[in-house]
Design goal:
5 strands; about 120 residues; about 35% helix; 5-stranded antiparallel beta sheet; alpha+beta
């Protein structure tokens, strides 16, 4: 009866050493794990890019710390209202949506109030 020959999960080369070894070296281990997580990381990077873009647009439209703009101005800049980092609900029940430190509140007549959260 011949013993089972284990191979590297990444490159397929024969493994020599410990019985629980799964990879030839650190490079194969890293490559394997990076490929395994690539799809998930791609989604995360895409969402982070949208959030950073949203923040940049809010910052550009709000140089003074608090301002009102038409919603269509943000839309023209490419703002994506589906993505935000968190919400803040005031005692009056108003919901502010934040992209990191810049937030916005929907106002009547398709206006948006943009604020900067002070630390």
């Amino acid at each position: 009866m011949t013993p089972h020959v284990k191979t590297c999960l990444d490159c397929g080369q024969k493994l020599i050493g410990r019985s629980d070894k799964k990879f030839c070296d650190d490079a194969c281990r890293s490559h394997y794990n990076n490929n395994k997580q690539r799809a998930e990381l791609k989604i995360i990077r895409k969402i982070n890019a949208i959030l950073k873009s949203n923040r940049k647009i809010l910052k550009k439209q709000n140089p003074s710390g608090k301002t009102k703009v038409q919603k269509k101005i943000l839309q023209k800049e490419g703002f994506n209202f589906e993505y935000f980092t968190h919400q803040y609900i005031t005692a009056k029940g108003n919901t502010y949506y934040f992209c990191y430190d810049y937030g916005y509140l929907f106002l009547p007549y398709n206006k948006v109030l943009i604020v900067k959260k002070e630390e």
